[in-house]
Amino acid sequence: MWIDTHCHLDAAEFAGDADAVRERAARAGVVHCVLPAVNAGNFHAVRALAHRHGDVYALGIHPLCTGEAREADLQALDHALAEHRDDPRLVAVGEIGLDYFVPGLDAARQEWFYAEQLAIAHRHGLPVLLHVRRSADQLLKQLRRVPVTGIAHAFNGSAQQAQAFVQLGFRLGFGGTLTYERALQIRRLAVELPLHSLVLETDAPDIPPHWLYRTAEQRAEGTPQGRNEPGELPRIGAVLAQLRGMESDALAAATSANTRAALPRLAALAA
């Protein structure tokens, strides 16, 4: 049994075949996908998809969307969390966080939206799904002020930063990146961190594993980039299991238990 802790099944890349994609994942053994929103405009879409496929969802404003977001969107988030507080499939606030990698973003604006959403999550008693890209220290600074936990998605920080998140009660998400032999830091973290701190994700349709990746030269020749799907999760998990020297079934059980611990409403749903 596998749980994909981060999958954008509402993305445009899945517009024509989301149901078929989810069915393939189910056949591969993915029993739940966590579907995070990225802005107020797709709150309904992730909720509808989660209910249609028996999955779970999160509501939040992604840091890459903060340039267009307004204070009214935070009010919409607060209202949606209150309106659907009895929905067992609403498990977190996310995807929220900070991105200091993409050029042209207003760092102060991102930080304001992040702090406001942490406060909203705390008020509603929900964990968070964090976007962490060259921003771990600033994320941790705010987390030390607001007692929330959750999942640090697609973690790519240092060992010291990883330990700081774990000490605050977070699980760390690993996915397609660890399938690349040159991803030495990610692989080292995925092996050396305690098993209880790890969860698995695809970030589909993004972060394709190595067997789906196409080089720039291949793309120039007309070969499209491989689309990542939640059905790839067991194969990604098998790579991690091999790196850690354990059986895939044991890793699936452990990471699923970790996910349920990070997202208590999912645990209640699966009980």
UniProtKB/TrEMBL annotation:
Keywords: Hydrolase. The keyword Flavoprotein does not apply. GO terms for molecular function: hydrolase activity. CDD domains: TatD_DNAse (cd01310). It holds the Pfam family TatD_DNase. Belongs to the metallo-dependent hydrolases superfamily. TatD-type hydrolase family. This is TatD family hydrolase. It comes from Ramlibacter pallidus.
